[in-house]
Write a structure and sequence with these properties.
The complex is a heterodimer of chains A (329) and B (571).
Chain A: H1 2-27, H2 33-44, H3 49-59, H4 67-79, H5 94-129, H6 138-147, H7 150-164, H8 185-222, H9 225-233, H10 237-249, H11 251-264, H12 269-275, H13 280-289, H14 293-321
Chain B: H1 3-34, E1 50-54, E2 85-86, E3 96-97, E4 100-105, E5 111-116, H2 130-142, E6 154-159, E7 162-166, H3 176-181, H4 188-191, E8 211-217, E9 220-225, E10 239-243, H5 248-256, E11 262-263, H6 270-273, E12 280-284, E13 288-294, H7 309-318, H8 321-327, H9 364-373, E14 377-378, E15 384-386, E16 389-390, E17 392-398, H10 402-416, E18 421-427, H11 429-438, E19 443-448, H12 457-464, H13 487-497, H14 502-519, E20 522-528, E21 531-535, E22 539-540, H15 559-566, E23 568-569
The chains are: A mainly alpha (329), B alpha+beta (571).
Chain lengths: 329, 571
């Protein structure tokens, strides 16, 4: 029990440090939200000196109170679950902006990461088990896709499958013309259809890492003595591959998987830009561009919490699936 | 469980999963097939025509139909709500009556009397009267957070069709364009019941415009025809849908696939792209003068060679604008004017015909002469020096503005021929804008924006008047980023604002123009194109180069309502 308690204590301290950095870093950027908004308005029409004053009042001139006061307010509001009002999406509250965009990101990126992991581990296990077969050729192909710049790969696939052979749609999260959001079959079908190409690009560009990792671990695990014992005992080959070899080889990959799951909520800005996908990445980008402290902090908070949560989960999970970490002395 | 049963159970589970995924894919294929291969397309032309517009929205769309809010969705201004009059910025013309039919000033310039249109109803059926106009202006005047124009007038409806605005200062003529052309009129019966007009998003907007809101999702929203609209037979198109696209690539792909009917994007290879495409046309309405902003006043704290007027003059003469247009402007840019006005539209306002247009080619000899006379001597490395200072300046622009980055690189080469060294730098928009507002820059590449009307006051006042500037290090939010301070210009701008006589204004602007052509705190390059692309298969009647009945950009407030009213279903 002290094991878990120690872990939790450490993560609480890490959380506090992350929150403080989360507060400080956006404020180190040049510019302030009022001037950003005024200049954006000036590009589209007429602004006068009175405009700045009006917008200052509108957004609340919070740049006047001292920094430590803002920090205390920030922590207090966090504890109450109030993430503030967004400037770039004024007057929508931050929780609303995040709740509108996060499901899309978690759905697309989360599913893609899971698919990529499952496929990568599966293929890598086979490639490691059957060394010298044609599966070995998959490794350089997939690692090539991984090293090609992701946006280039996405653009090429979009052009080929969207414009050249019109198999997939060009942009969007779902069919806005014929379906409306809700738990109905056409909408869900449309979401899957529109998400297939972005998911495909993510899977293609990340599968190489998983495959390579587990294939190498498999190769080294297969030379262990307990594999020889299992074969000598007369177990079926498939069972040895899955239950003995892969189960041990996959341990480092699981740690990496949990951490990449944590980063899923950060969104993939490039994916969303290329496919015009309505996720949290583009909200974060516009928040950074508009010095929208509240929205930036809100999204960073979500990312921080999920990464810390994923790390904690991995730590605890590891002690479950690998009994060696539990043993002391 | 024995091995056998476990295997059978696993097989059953696998079969189940396979069946489920097959069903899911079949579902996706069905819905996918229904909407067409290359993604969904809008409904065709004919009686129930529906069009798709891309107005520059990226990412998630935030619902906000509050016409007073700076983050209101763009169709709020002009499509759902209307102003009193409409000023056409594409060509010089009298303001078009919309909700107002006539207006007149008193001699003092303290009272503006407006006659409102009869027979207009709000989209909820209530009649529109002058009381709504008075309510709108009074609401702005007493709520500082909404008063972005600095309106100090109070309004009173003398009867159902007449309203009088009373301004506290005399000669408030220059406020006319803002009051008549840039303010949406809201219904009193709805807004007097709203507790917080500042932060409300106004979810069911009630306006007098040609369209009203049908449906909204964060990815796209639809407007439908307003059956109560006051103009007979308009609008003809029954639905307008707005979508969001993240990049210019996505926009051009959507345009070529026929998914978008109206959008404004700068696509450099446009002529090439549309060579074989009969459905798509475009119009070019150059309106924003791309200029080199210089931090020009040593009094206000600027440092660097650009504070010397001779250097600015030399830059003006040494630029080869034809080459710049070809390399950076895509060949679409218009010819600018040293008076910072638009030569085609504003020829009447430009007093001296010699100041009408910028030179198209480079006059290297003249530039060299100017620099020689000012004491800048050529150094051994080809860069001029004076009193130990090298003629080297940094010029900043925004990362991602590819045409401006090309401009910088080309200008660097052109100016090197006369001994001027340019050091281009690319910054994030935040930092670039911050530098301009605070004056912590030497040269910056930016555009002069659109005014409330085509009166030169709206170009000269924000950019040249010393009331709109500040010392280097302080915020010059008014817009005079060049830190330009000239008493003659200040006096002339003030005098022009005090009169409604156009001849008198022109005489004052002549004084301004003489000074700014000499000083050139903003060195004009060319007028940046505003390309707007249209798809003609579903609707026709878009503005074109022969008939610029409105400023066609899909993001332009007020004009968007005029365009949507004028288009007709094709065929």
């Amino acid at each position: 029990m002290t094991f878990v308690a120690r872990k939790l204590g450490f993560y609480v301290v890490a959380l506090w440090a992350a929150l403080t950095l989360n507060f400080l870093i956006p404020r180190l950027m040049p510019g302030n939200p009022v001037d950003q908004l005024v200049s954006k308005l000036a590009q589209k029409g007429q602004v006068t000196p009175a405009t700045r004053h009006a917008i200052e009042l509108l957004l609340g001139a919070d740049t006047s109170s001292p920094l430590w006061q803002q920090y205390v307010d920030y922590l207090r509001q966090l504890a109450q679950g109030d993430l503030g009002v967004s400037v770039s999406y004024f007057p929508a509250p931050v929780t609303q902006v995040i709740s509108q965009t996060l499901p899309w990101t978690v759905g697309l990126i989360g599913l893609s990461t899971i698919i990529s992991f499952v496929l990568g581990v599966g293929l890598g296990t086979l490639a490691g088990w059957r060394r010298g077969s044609w599966l070995d050729n998959l490794i350089p192909v997939t690692t090539m896709f991984q090293s090609v710049p992701y946006f280039w790969l996405a653009l090429v696939l979009l052009y080929v499958f969207g414009s050249m052979w019109q198999v997939f749609p060009l942009n969007g999260g779902y069919d806005v013309y014929t379906t409306s959001p809700g738990w109905n079959a056409p909408f869900i079908g449309s979401v899957i259809y529109y998400g297939t190409l972005p998911a495909l690009t993510i899977v293609l560009s990340s599968i190489g890492g998983w495959m390579l990792g587990i294939r190498n671990m498999m190769v080294s695990t297969l030379s262990e003595d307990f594999i020889v014992t299992a074969e000598a005992k007369g177990l079926r080959r498939g069972r040895i591959m899955r239950t003995y070899a892969a189960r041990n080889a996959v341990l480092p990959s699981i740690a990496g998987f949990a951490i990449s799951l944590g980063f899923v909520v950060g969104g993939s800005i490039v994916t969303e830009a290329v496919f015009s996908y309505p996720g949290v990445g583009s909200a974060l980008l516009s928040a950074v561009n508009s010095s929208d402290y509240a929205l930036m902090q809100g999204i960073f908070l979500v990312i921080t919490l999920s990464v810390l949560g994923a790390n904690l989960l991995v730590d605890l999970l590891y002690s479950v699936i690998d009994p060696r970490t539990r043993a002391r002395g | 469980m024995t091995d056998m049963t476990r295997r059978r159970a696993r097989r059953r589970v696998l079969t189940g999963i396979a069946a489920a995924s097959a069903a899911l894919f079949a579902l996706a294929a069905c819905s996918g097939g229904g909407s067409g291969g290359g993604g969904a397309s809008p409904a065709g032309g004919g009686k129930d025509a529906s069009i798709t517009v891309f107005n520059g929205a990226t990412g998630t769309i935030n619902e906000n139909w509050n016409p007073f809010s700076p983050t209101a969705l763009q169709p709020t201004l002009g499509v759902i709500y209307e102003p009193l009059f409409w000023y056409n910025l594409a060509e010089t013309s009298d303001p078009t009556p919309l909700l107002g039919t006539e207006f007149s000033w008193n001699d003092d310039g303290t009272e503006l009397t407006i006659t409102t249109r009869e027979g207009v109803s709000w989209s909820d059926g209530e009649p529109f009267t002058a009381k709504d106009v008075a309510f709108t202006f009074n609401l702005i005047q007493k709520t500082p957070e909404l008063n972005t124009s600095g309106l100090s007038a109070t309004a009173e409806a003398t009867d159902d069709t007449h309203v009088v605005l009373t301004f506290p200062e005399k000669n408030s003529f220059m406020q006319e364009a803002q009051v008549l052309g840039n303010q949406a009129i809201v219904p009193e019966h709805v807004w007097s019941a709203i507790d917080d007009p500042i932060t409300t998003i106004n979810p069911d907007p009630v306006g007098t415009g040609a369209y009203k809101l049908k449906d909204f999702t964060p990815q796209s929203y639809v407007l439908e025809k307003n059956p109560e609209y006051w103009e007979e037979g308009k609008p003809s198109v029954s639905e307008v849908r707005y979508i969001s696209l993240d990049t210019a690539d996505a926009a051009s792909a959507a345009l070529l696939a026929g998914d978008v009917d109206w959008m404004s994007s700068f696509l450099p290879g446009l002529d090439q792209m549309l060579k074989d495409n009969q459905e798509i046309s475009y119009v070019n309405t150059p309106a924003l003068t791309t200029s080199i902003y210089t931090c020009s006043s040593t009094d206000l704290g600027c440092e660097g060679p650009q504070t010397d007027p001779a250097v600015r003059q030399a830059m003006y003469w040494a630029l080869d604008r034809d080459q710049l247009n070809k390399l950076a402007g895509g060949g679409f840019a218009g010819t600018g004017s040293p008076t910072l006005l638009l030569p085609e539209r504003d020829a009447d306002w430009i007093a001296d015909p010699g100041n009408l247009e910028v030179p198209s080619g480079a006059d290297v000899d003249k530039a060299n002469q100017i620099l020689d006379d000012a004491g800048w001597t050529k150094g051994s490395d080809g860069v001029r020096t004076k009193d130990g200072e090298r003629l080297s300046m940094t010029i900043q622009t925004v990362t991602g503005w590819s045409d401006f980055i090309s401009l910088n690189d080309t200008m660097k080469q052109q100016l090197a021929a006369v001994g001027i060294e340019l050091e281009p730098s690319q910054l994030a928009w935040n930092e670039w804008n911050d530098n301009q507002v605070k004056g912590t820059f030497q040269l910056s590449l930016d555009s002069i924006g659109l005014g409330a009307s085509d009166n030169p006051y709206f170009t000269y006042n924000p950019k040249y008047s010393s009331t709109n500037t500040a010392k280097v290090g302080e915020m010059a939010s008014g817009g005079n980023y060049a830190r330009y301070k000239n008493e003659k210009v200040d006096a002339a701008i003030l005098a022009a604002s005090q009169t409604s006589d156009e001849a008198e204004q022109k005489a004052q602007y002549a004084i301004v123009q003489d000074e700014i052509v000499k000083d050139l705190p903003y060195v004009p390059i060319y007028i940046n194109s505003t390309l707007t692309e249209f798809n003609n298969t579903r609707v026709t009647g878009w503005p074109d180069n022969e008939d610029k009945y409105a400023f066609a950009a899909s993001w332009k407030a007020w004009d968007n309502g005029i365009v949507l009213k004028t288009i007709q279903p094709a065929g």
